[in-house]
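Quick start: what a row looks like.
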Amino acid sequence: MAGANMSGELRNPARNIPRGTLSAVGFTFICYLLLSFLTASTCTRFLLQNNFLFMMPINVWPPFITIGIITATFSASLSNLIGSSRILEALAKDNVFGFILDFVACGTWRGNPIAAVLSSWFLVQMMMLIGSLNTIAQINSVLFLLSYLATNLACLGLEIASAPNFRPSFKYFTWHTAFIGLLGTLVMMFVINIIYASFSIVLCLLLVVLLHLFSPSKTANWGSISQALIFHQVRKYLLLLDSRKDHVKFWRPQILLMVGNPRSCCPLIQFVNDLKKSGLYILGHVKVGNMSDFVIDPTLDEYTHWLTLIDHLKVKAFVELTVSQSVREGLQHLIRLSGLGAMKPNTIVLGFFDDEVPIDFFQKSSSIEYIDVWPINLFQPDDNDPFDTTSLFMLQLACILKMVPGWSHKKQLLTENSVMKTPANESIDYIQRVNQLIQEHCKNTTATFIYLPAPPALESSEEEELVYLQYLHLLTKLTFDLPPTILVHGVSAVTSTTL
């Protein structure tokens, strides 16, 4: 690993590291193999077991062994000292440990990390205080094998993630060789010493977790392998998610919330986050304009700010932005194109249009106890079907809301499913009386679910604007001076009414 540790000093690391590493390993392997064969052929069993310096009496000139020991020790120690100091310097420059290694980054002279070399030397001296070369050798071997294990694990992860930019030039490399190297180093660690191996692995995992949680550089854009692995797994399982196998028993809300002004919609974003019940949650925003008027996509710069908002509110949501000539057209685009595969929104949430002047009020929070549900079409009470799609959808949403820890102490109140009959053509007086009826029952209500009738169907477009304005006016009168109100209209079944 000496070449890899000093990769910053090499002209062509991709070429020099493989050649140098393989040639060094091959040469060392041949020397050790010949030495083992020759000593086993010429020395007795007793000599090999009881004399650690058996090479001196059998050598042509005994001082050769002393010179060899000194040279090998000096070469290995110097190589490891320089390599480890370069790694320590890189950790300091990347701010992995924060201010702890600031002195290392500052102690560089003419490109040489003097402070890192002295720090590495001091750590080596601390290990030497153990006083037993056999113990030091075992610890040293376990730690070296742990570094090899981490290298093989990284290569295995990159190969499994199928990252296009990971193209090792070593033609014999596959995930099989990385796995064999990983398994081999792990086994050898425990063969050397079970206690040292277990302790080093636990310490390494603890260090990784602490760095992940508290490192100042955790926001650095290094290209985390975890994102590549997550993408690989998510894509695989998303392909297994088949929309043709959906069943109403496992229905869950997959919500698209249209947000106009994020500053004024934060409470709504958090409320809808409570309604999603581990389902898909998308924040949609339409930027009105013509795409041909922009040189680049205007939503690119805004996207980062939306992600910052999600992090600040601590909601689990995705963001979809689009450019369209009108909000209505943009909403239609988002409804059809949001999501991926079988994960498509099935519930659209819109903030109710409100041009009234804000009014401050005070209400004692301890008196708010109920989630109020009105599962009846208040515009057409003659159509009294308690099991129609919208009524069941309202009850489903109210039940989901009550499952959320912040809402679990609220009582779900199902208001009596009957109101006064009215002519087919609703009047303002009737809607106001219904509003008064709801107010009488919602004094202690924290959220009210009300049946949202479908907009009136028109045969001609001439009276479209007038009828729709009247429809919105009736809804405004219906919800006047009520607690937080959710108008619900269902299209498809969300629960099964049969066994």
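That is the whole record. Residues 365-488 form one domain. Strands lie at 108-109, 112-113, 255-258, 281-288, 318-324, 347-350, 370-374, 411-414, 445-451, 485-488.
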